[in-house]
Design goal:
Blueprint (H helix, E strand, L loop, with lengths): L13 H12 L9 E6 L4 E4 L2 E3 L6 H12 L3 E6 L11 E4 L3 H11 L5 E4 L6 E3 L18 E3 L3 H8 L4 E8 L3 H11 L4 E6 L11 E2 L2 E4 L3 E3 L3 E2 H16 L14
Parallel strand pairs: 1-4, 1-6, 4-5, 6-9, 9-10
Antiparallel strand pairs: 2-3, 7-8, 10-12, 11-14, 12-13
Bound molecules: cytidine-5'-monophosphate (C5P).
Length: 255
């Protein structure tokens, strides 16, 4: 390094460099005045003090979405399940563990938000009760009773009032049909659907491919970095929230 320090170094991933450069170039402050509530990461449901049930979410999609909103000038509240990602600068990070914790934090902060983006992979089930002590092994098999967790996004969809809600659908089959249904059932304004079995898309990694589904149309986006996908999502949100002159729709804007 210029200061004379020698050692093994590592260049940032090219996709990260491109994203950082793009972020500087397109800093448009178009979400100035908005408060964006983002959920990210997995939730962790304890079985006992050393065992838990969770999923493969790394939190990357939600973090990139939160960072992109911050760079467009929004105040951002990021409610995150446990992840290995560094806390992003310039936004409020609320760390949670279980689906119930996440539901409580979202409900406590919803009033402040004008836009909500639920990118977390929330566990649908949790053990009915967590043992306070480590479960001892015995000869036979055991079973753990699993009960439903609150559907946070559905709750937001019911109580959102004038807020703009974004949902995510990670699917392994019937991606489009399930996602279209989910958008209506959860009462969200924009649904981001992705096939998690597709190479380079889904949970791990810095890339994703998704279909954006809203009331005006659908846009099938190619494989791109999660930061770029985040930018495309915010572009679409901004289009949909912009008041339209009479007898015009946003349909022409769907790519
Ligand atoms: O129903 P499904 O889990 O496929 O829906 C995915 C969407 O719903 C995501 O936006 C996710 O963050 C949200 N979700 C939630 N609470 C749950 C389950 C999913 O907010 N318990």
């Amino acid at each position: 390094l210029a200061c004379g320090w020698l050692g093994k170094g590592r260049l940032a991933e090219p996709a990260e460099i491109v994203d950082a450069a793009l972020a500087v170039l397109r800093r448009k402050r178009s979400l100035e005045g908005e408060c964006v509530l983002v959920t990210a990461g997995p939730t962790v449901e304890d079985i006992d003090p050393v065992r838990f049930v969770s999923n493969r979410s790394t939190g990357r999609m939600g973090y990139r979405l939160a960072e992109a909103a911050r760079d467009r000038g929004a105040r951002v509240i990021l409610v995150s399940g446990p992840t290995a990602l560094p806390p992003p600068a310039g936004l409020e990070l609320v760390s949670v563990r279980s689906a119930q914790d996440m539901a409580a934090s979202v409900s406590a902060r919803l009033a402040e938000a004008s836009i909500v983006a639920m990118a977390a992979a929330v566990s649908d089930y949790r053990p009915a009760s967590a043992s306070p002590t480590k479960v001892k092994k015995t000869e036979g098999s055991i079973s753990v009773e699993m009960v439903r967790t609150p559907d946070i996004l559905k709750g937001v969809g019911t109580e959102k009032g004038g807020r703009f809600a974004i949902g995510f659908a990670a699917e392994t089959d019937g991606v489009l049909q399930n996602a279209r249904k989910k958008r209506i059932e959860k009462n969200v304004d924009l649904l981001v659907a992705n096939d998690v079995t597709r190479q380079g898309a889904g949970f791990a990694g810095e890339t994703n491919a998704a279909v954006l589904i809203d009331a005006q149309g659908e846009a099938d986006l190619p494989l791109m970095s999660k930061r770029e996908l985040a930018e495309r999502i915010w572009d679409r949100v901004e289009q949909l929230r912009r008041p339209l002159p009479e007898d015009e729709t946003n349909e022409a804007n769907v790519r």
